[in-house]
Amino acid sequence: xxxxxxxxxxxxxxxxxxxxxxxxxxxxxxxxxxxxxxxxxxxxxxxxxxxxxxxxxxxxxxxxxxxxxxxxxxxxxxxxxxxxxxxxxxxxxxxxxxxxxxxxxxxxxxxxxxxxxxxxxxx
Length: 123
Description:
mainly beta; 12 strands
């Protein structure tokens, strides 16, 4: 079960996940900014979003990123844009935690806009 903390507006400000956690940094009309921390040896589900695009900026560690059929390795200071409806995954193959800033942009940016295509944790 995911650990969540909600604020007075009834949305999560952080969630513990089997792969690490995310923390909400800011949100507004049509955008959401999160800090994503991925534990060593873990990865997020292969997923897509129908109503939002995402930008990932690597701030600590090294990430293996899957976008569609492409795999990229990104280091601190590098970033990638993920269009809506595009399968994507974030993976940490290193010994230290991976930290990514995610900027989601779209008409609908709630956490239920997710389709998991493959998941290591059976969700």
